[in-house]
Write a structure and sequence with these properties.
The chain contains eleven helices and eight strands.
Length: about 450
């Protein structure tokens, strides 16, 4: 009773245009997808991976520039020591103070183009991570469509169950009256009560399924379970007309150009090819350049002529030094490590090439199955309509005969049960057809709306 009162209050507030806290009057499929893509944490997680790869790319570009470092030191020594700055051996019980500062820089001039190729590889990896974000968005979109249509289906099944139990209760009321005047038997009355109980059980089952599908949809949209909204139903006639002509070649070619999984497989193959170039770079010599500038100070430094102690600033000016080094390193033999690395990179490329072919083949199979499912769903929906209409006519005919005593209760309630099942099946087939059509939109990159 409390649930019914709450539902009535909510419906009244929606009709009056009032807004409840945490309440959305209506949610369209397009809005549900948009909300999911804005809030879902899986997308945010994938975006973090993309941002980390951006930093890797920035780092690889920075590796082309020379590094630069500055260092300074100050040390004290008591007793015997050799003073590098003054070039003498110090004896006795004296303290010796030494200070120095240096500025250095180095850069790799040539390294087998490994750093250039690493930049290119990181750019490709960035594209892979971007397609991963798109792939997750696509998967979430399909999940929203699935749960949205499942919720609508269960909602209509719940509404149908409500109507069916009303019909059963009315029949029970009529049979009770007829029983009281002796026109119906105890078996007839028991059969009517059993039908009411069965239909009430269908109500509970349908309501639980509806609430669960709504909860799944709310979780995808990162909404509170207490959020209340209604779903906009599709126009079945428009959906049927939209997919009247659907060819495999047209859908498959569009899917190849829009599906992130295909684009990702292509990028992974390109990355594997670039990794071969990086591995081969280790066969080439490495040429590097390093430069340094520094000076130092010693408390034991004296002027060689006057024997006067040199002060701090004079020593830092006089002791300046500059060095420059060009280094060449030629790899001769490193226990076949480079050779094995190149061979592994080539195998990884062949594997990536095969994975791309598998992705294309899987997409081809999936598209073919999706089109077949769509056509089958259309036929099944038409068949379920015919089955429901014929079962309803059969029920109405037998009910007329039952009311005048020409049919027994078993025939009557068997016909009602068949009609109920046919109605449930028609509802399921109707939204199965809509879902199959939206799967086609998903693969060819069309906006998912109705």
């Amino acid at each position: 009773m409390i649930r019914k009162i709450s539902s009535c209050i909510f419906c009244l507030m929606v009709l009056l245009g009032m807004q409840m806290p945490g309440c959305y009057a209506q949610i369209t499929l397009e809005n549900a997808i948009k909300t999911t893509l804005e809030r879902n944490l899986q997308i945010r997680q994938a975006q973090f991976g993309y941002q980390l790869t951006e930093q890797d790319l920035y780092q690889s570009k920075s590796e082309l520039y020379p590094n630069l470092s500055f260092g300074a030191s100050n040390s004290y020594n008591y007793g015997l020591t050799f003073d590098q700055t003054s070039g003498q051996l110090i004896r006795g019980n004296d303290w010796t103070s030494n200070a120095g500062a240096q500025l250095s820089s180095s850069v790799a001039i040539f390294q087998g183009f490994q750093r250039i190729n690493q930049i290119k590889a990181n750019k490709i990896q960035l594209s892979i991570d971007a397609t991963e974000v798109d792939k997750i968005k696509n998967d979430l979109t399909l999940s929203v469509v699935t749960n949205y249509l499942e919720a609508i289906t269960n909602g209509e099944l719940y509404e149908a169950a409500m109507q069916q139990v009303k019909l059963s209760r009315e029949q029970l009321r009529q049979d009770s009256i007829q029983f009281s005047v002796g026109n119906k038997t105890v078996a007839d009355l028991a059969q009517a009560e059993n039908q009411v109980a069965t239909d009430e059980l269908n109500i509970m089952t349908s309501e639980n399924a509806y609430q669960l599908s709504l909860l799944n949809l709310k979780q995808l949209m990162e909404m509170s379970p207490d959020t209340v909204f209604t779903l906009v139903k599709p126009n079945i006639a428009e959906v049927m007309a939209e997919y009247a002509i659907t060819s495999f070649d047209d859908v498959f070619n569009k899917a190849l150009a829009t599906q992130p999984v295909i684009e990702q497989a292509t990028y992974i193959k390109s990355l594997a090819l670039k990794n071969i170039d990086i591995a081969r770079g280790a066969f080439f010599p490495t040429i590097s350049l390093s430069v340094g500038y520094g000076t130092n100070y010693s408390s034991q430094a004296f002027d060689p002529v006057t024997r006067a102690r040199l002060d701090f600033l004079d020593q830092f000016n006089e002791n300046r030094s500059f060095r420059g080094t060009v280094g060449l390193e030629v790899p001769i033999f490193n226990n076949n490590q480079t050779k094995v690395a190149v061979n592994k990179a080539k195998i990884n490329y062949l594997q990536a090439e095969n994975d791309e072919a598998i992705a294309r083949r899987n997409l081809e199979k999936t598209i073919a199955q999706a089109i077949l499912d769509l056509r089958s769903a259309n036929k099944q929906y038409f068949a379920s309509q015919v089955a429901f209409n014929t079962s309803r006519v059969a029920y109405e005919t037998i009910k007329e005969r039952y009311d005048v005593g020409m049919a027994n209760s078993i025939e009557m309630f068997t016909a009602q049960t068949n009609m109920n099942k046919a109605e449930f099946e028609m509802i399921r087939r109707k939204y199965e057809m809509v879902f199959r059509g939206k799967v086609i939109d998903y693969y060819i990159g069309n906006p998912i709306t109705f």
